[in-house]
Amino acid sequence: MKATDMNQTTPRFFALIPCAGNGSRAGTAGPKQYERVAGQPLVWHTLSAFAGVKRIARTLVVVAPTDGFFERNPTTSALVVTCGGATRAQSVANGLRELRRAGAVDGDWVLVHDAARCLVTPELIDRLIDTCANDEVGGLLAHPLPDTLKIGEDGRVAATVNRANKWQAQTPQMFRLGMLRQALEAAGDEITDESSAIEAMGLKPLLVEAGAQNFKVTYPEDFQMAEAVLRGRNR
Ligand SMILES: Nc1ccn([C@@H]2O[C@H](COP(=O)(O)OP(=O)(O)OP(=O)(O)O)[C@@H](O)[C@H]2O)c(=O)n1
Ligand SMILES: C[C@](O)(CO)[C@H](O)COP(=O)(O)O
Q1: What is the rounded CA–CA span in Å between residue 227 and residue 232?
Q2: Which residues have C-beta atoms less than 6 Å from ligand 1?
Q3: 53 alpha carbon, distance to own chain's centre
Q4: What is the CATH number of the domain that holds 90?
Q5: Domain count, the chain
Q6: Interface pTM, i.e. ipTM
């Protein structure tokens, strides 16, 4: 990391939205992030939440090279780049490169957020920023595991795991651009979140408690749940 970048007096906050997945578990005909939920394509709810946080200098959306959705629907002020990779980690690493091209420096904060977590709110994003902005490492939104946890083997319970101190990792996950770039390069393409890459460097990201509503739309039934929550909020 260049010293000049780190010495920048006021780090800015950028959002990076990986939006290049296929949604294979969702059972939809096309990518799940473009399914209509509560009257809008799912990803628009996600982008609206980030648009509601004035501290975010720029939002960058990473889509697959073959994705034409944003060209057909040019309504967002976010920067849309077609550099999605074969894994989420690759999409994020490619997006970081584009953020640098757009003017972000190593000392700036990047909030990486799944396009598929359309229930995030400006309040949750602000909570993450407020908690992490003065931290050496950064952190992530997360939810303490509410259920008893089992290990399964051939459809039967092999063991029960103590759930104390176990958290479900959510997004956004917020780290300095330079640190995250290095961490992802070292961690490889298979990691499923940014925190794992930072942890692999021996660092301990902050866990910032968020509610269960910030879930990731993953399975077919999740669309209905997301719809109900969003409609409930607009009432
Ligand atoms: N190569 C990939 C894979 C995933 N994602 C994004 O990462 C987020 C979280 O991933 P996940 O929920 O696993 O999405 P999918 O990969 O689309 O779903 P599935 O694993 O069911 O195929 C999503 O917003 C997805 O679009 C991405 O940008 N690039
Ligand atoms: C980043 C993430 O949302 C944290 O829960 C998640 O890891 C995304 O990918 P996954 O394949 O559904 O684990």
Answers
A1: 8
A2: 18-26, 33, 62, 84-88, 91, 114-116, 216, 218
A3: 15
A4: 3.90.550.10
A5: 1
A6: 0.98
